[in-house]
Design a protein that fits this description.
- A hairpin with a 2-residue loop joins strand 1 and strand 2.
- The protein has 267 residues and is mainly alpha-helical.
- The chain is globular, with a radius of gyration of 24 Å.
- A two-stranded antiparallel sheet has the order 1-2.
- It has helices at 3-27, 30-56, 58-61, 78-82, 84-88, 94-104, 130-141, 144-147, 168-178, 181-185, 201-205, 214-223, 247-250, 253-263, and strands at residues 232-233, 236-237.
- The model has no long low-confidence stretch (mean pLDDT 84).
- The longest helix has 27 residues, at 30-56.
- Bound molecules: heme C (2 copies).
- Residues 56-57, 59-61, 72-73, 75, 80, 84, 98, 101-102, 106, 109-110, 112-113, 115-117, 120, 136, 242 line the site of one heme C (HEC).
C-alpha cells in the first residue's frame, strides 16, 4: 500500500469506528445512562475532595493521609476502615463518621497529637461548605479499597508541575497551596480561616518580634511556629500547636527559602 491508500484506509476505519461509537451512545437508554452519570459525579466528587484535602488536611494528616507522627493520625490505614468505628463505639456509617468529625472537629482530642482537629463545617463556623465536606469524605473513602488490600487504584491528586526554571517566589507560591498553608491562612488578599490571614504579612513581619528581620520572623514562624504566637486568630486567640510543627523537617531548605521569598511579596 502506498501512503495515500494507508491514509484513506485509516480514514474509513476511523469513520466506521466513530459511527459505531455514536450508534452505541444513542442506543443506550435512559436507565443505563443514569448510573453512568452517577459514576461521573462520584469521580468528580473524589477529585474535588483531593484538592480540598491537599489544601486543608495534608499539613496534619500527611500526604495521601498517611499521618504525621505526633501531629495527627493516619486516615489511609486498614484499621481506619475496619475496626476504628467499633473502637470509638460509633454506630453510623464510615461516611457519616468522617463527615461529622470534619464538620464539628475534635475540640477535645485524645491528647496523643499536637495538632488540633479544627471545626471545618460552615454550620459550626468553619470554612468548608456541606458539599466540600462531602467531597473530602469521598476522597478519604476512596482509599478504602487499597487500604484493606483489595483491588483498585486510589485516586491521587494531580501534583502541580512547576517548570524547572521556576523562580523561588513561584516555587513558594505553589507550595503555599500544595502544603496546606492556604487551607488555614486563606489566599493572599483574603481572610484567614483557621490561622491568621496572610494578607500583608510582609508589611508587619519586620515589626512583630523586636530585633527580628521580616525574613527571619517568617522563617521562624514556619519552622518553629510556637516561638511567637500571633495573638488573634479568626476563631479567638491563636492556640499553640495549631499550626503543624513539622514543616522544618518536611520542607527542603530551597522550599523554605521559596516560601519566605513568596510571603515577602505579600505587602
Ligand atoms: C491542625 C491539624 C489538623 C488538620 C489541619 C486536620 N486535622 Fe483531622 N485530625 C487532627 C487530629 C489531631 C485528629 C485526632 C484527634 C484525636 O482524636 O486526638 C484528627 C482526626 C481526624 C479524623 C478522625 C480520625 C479518627 O480515626 O478518629 C478525621 C476523619 C479527620 N481528622 C479528617 C480531617 C480532614 C478531612 C481534614 C481537612 C479538611 C483535617 N482532618 C484537617 C488534626 C488535624
Ligand atoms: C492547621 C493550620 C495551619 C497550617 C496548615 C499552616 N499554618 Fe501557619 N499558622 C497557623 C496558626 C494558628 C498561626 C498562629 C499561631 C502561631 O503564631 O503559631 C500561624 C502562624 C503563621 C505565621 C505567622 C503569621 C503572622 O501573621 O505573623 C506564618 C508566617 C505562617 N503561619 C506561615 C505558614 C506557612 C508558610 C504554612 C505552610 C507551609 C502554614 N503556615 C501552614 C495555622 C496554620
Amino acid at each position: 500500500m502506498n501512503n495515500t491508500m494507508i491514509k484513506i484506509t485509516t480514514g474509513i476505519v476511523t469513520m466506521l469506528l466513530m459511527a459505531g461509537i455514536f450508534v452505541l451512545f444513542v442506543a443506550r437508554d435512559e436507565p443505563n445512562r443514569l448510573p453512568a452519570k452517577e459514576a461521573d459525579f462520584a469521580a468528580r466528587s473524589v477529585e474535588n475532595g483531593a484538592m480540598i484535602f491537599e489544601a486543608n488536611c495534608v499539613g496534619c494528616h500527611g500526604v495521601q493521609g498517611k499521618g504525621i507522627p505526633g501531629v495527627a493520625p493516619a486516615l489511609n490505614t486498614p484499621e481506619f476502615f475496619t475496626t476504628r468505628l467499633q473502637e470509638v463505639g460509633y454506630g453510623g456509617s464510615q461516611r457519616t463518621f468522617i463527615e461529622s468529625t470534619v464538620n464539628a472537629g475534635r475540640p477535645v482530642g485524645s491528647g496523643q497529637y499536637s495538632g488540633v482537629m479544627a471545626t471545618w463545617g460552615q454550620q459550626y463556623g468553619g470554612p468548608l461548605r456541606p458539599d466540600q465536606v462531602s467531597d473530602v469524605a469521598s476522597f478519604i473513602l476512596n482509599w478504602e479499597a487499597t487500604a484493606v488490600g483489595g483491588e483498585g487504584q486510589a485516586a491521587q491528586p494531580t501534583p502541580t508541575q512547576l517548570p524547572s526554571d521556576a523562580s523561588p517566589v513561584e516555587l513558594g507560591q505553589a507550595l503555599f497551596t500544595s502544603k496546606g498553608c492556604a487551607g488555614c491562612h486563606g489566599e493572599p488578599g483574603g481572610v484567614g480561616l483557621v490561622g491568621p490571614s496572610i494578607t500583608g504579612i510582609a508589611t508587619r513581619a519586620g515589626s512583630t518580634v523586636p530585633g527580628q528581620s521580616a525574613e527571619d520572623y517568617i522563617h521562624e514562624s514556619i519552622v518553629n511556629p510556637n516561638a511567637y504566637l500571633v495573638p488573634e486568630c479568626p476563631n479567638g486567640p491563636c492556640a499553640a500547636n495549631l499550626m503543624p510543627q513539622t514543616f522544618g523537617q518536611l520542607l527542603s531548605p530551597a522550599e523554605l527559602d521559596g516560601l519566605v521569598q513568596y510571603l515577602m511579596t505579600l505587602e
